[in-house]
Amino acid sequence: MASGNGENRTIGVRISRRVLWIGDDAYPLQNIARVGPRELVPPPPTPVKDYLKLIAAAVIPALIVGLLFSSGLGWFVFLVVFGVATYRLIRVLTEEKTRLYALTIETAGASNTVLVSSDIETMVDIAQNIMKAIDDPQFEFARNITVDARGANIGQIGDHGQHMNSFGVPPTHS
């Protein structure tokens, strides 16, 4: 039920006959103990440190090329790497950060991150509808949600192992 490509894709979320369906994964409502959105917090970036590493790495090839060819080619290699590194540093520092939220479902056995999106209102709405369905056996719900495919590795859906997000840190619990 997923479609799209690139960084975003569409997933169908529905509740029917006491089962929560997220794409092709089914979660019986009677097994759900808690549900809610959590903000994912990536580790702090290290753009200056990465920049300095690139510049330091550029010195060695520039020296080798300069010694081998006894010309200005070594300086040219260094300046090219310096330019690329400076461009990357500026791009990282000026890039707008998108906040991501994970919809987490806790069962008796595990906590599963089932959706990741930058739309917190949609995540809250889905969580509230899951809780309505738990309280009301007749309640049905269906909608499509655009999820962030970068967050696809944030929790192994159906896996009862330790959950780490794609940033390598545990999701925050507020």
| Global outline | rod-shaped
Spatial separation of the terminal alpha carbons: 30 Å
* Structural class assignment: alpha+beta
Q: Uncertain segments of ≥5 residues (pLDDT<50)? A: 1-6, 152-174
Task: Estimate the helix proportion, in percent.
Answer: 25-40%
Strand content is 25-35%
Could you explain how this protein is built, in words?
By secondary structure, the chain is α+β, with helices and mostly antiparallel strands. It is built from three helices and seven strands; from the N terminus they run E-E-E-E-H-H-E-E-H-E. It has helices at 47-69, 73-94, 120-135, and strands at residues 8-16, 19-22, 25-28, 32-40, 100-107, 111-117, 141-148. The strands form two sheets. A four-stranded antiparallel β-sheet has the order 3-2-1-7, covered by helices on one side. Helix 1 (47-69) packs antiparallel against helix 2. It is rod-shaped and about 80 Å long. 20% of the residues are buried. Mean pLDDT is 77; it is low at 1-6 and 152-174.
Task: Write a brief structural summary.
By secondary structure, the chain is of the alpha+beta class. The protein has helices at about 45-70, 75-95, 120-135; strands at about 10-15, 20, 25-30, 30-40, 100-105, 110-115, 140-150. Helices cover about 35% and strands about 30% of the residues.
Sum up the structure in keywords.
alpha+beta; 174 residues; 3-stranded antiparallel sheet; 35% helix; single chain; 28% strand; disordered C terminus; 3 helices; 4-stranded antiparallel sheet
